[in-house]
Amino acid sequence: MIEGSSDVQGLRVLVAEDEVLVAMLLEEMLDDLGCRVIGPHGTLAEALAAGRSDEFDVAVIDMNLAGERADPILAELAARSVPFAIASGGGHWDLPYEPAFMLNKPYTFAQLQQAVQALGRARG
Fold this sequence. Notes:
Oligomer: single chain
Low-confidence stretches: none
Shape: globular
Number of helices: 4
């Protein structure tokens, strides 16, 4: 257990990430924070299905999932009032919904921890 992670302990995090190694690292870091990972989902279709049916508290979403923009997932999250972070490399995204946190790849463990804490606080 990482010191200072008790505020996010048990948080269920939906993960949409198409890069296998990044998804594995993200899953490991979230596990180290005491979070429960829902996913990771590597395609828009998988992530959208999970966003509509799975139970989770917050989400970390890559904007580019195997060449498709994640806008439909963001719409689903916004409709459900689920706080989310965008974790993407480069580019300025014209986002249809405001994320609770932006993670620019590559990000550190400390940056991810900060993002997850912000998502937890945004839950209300």
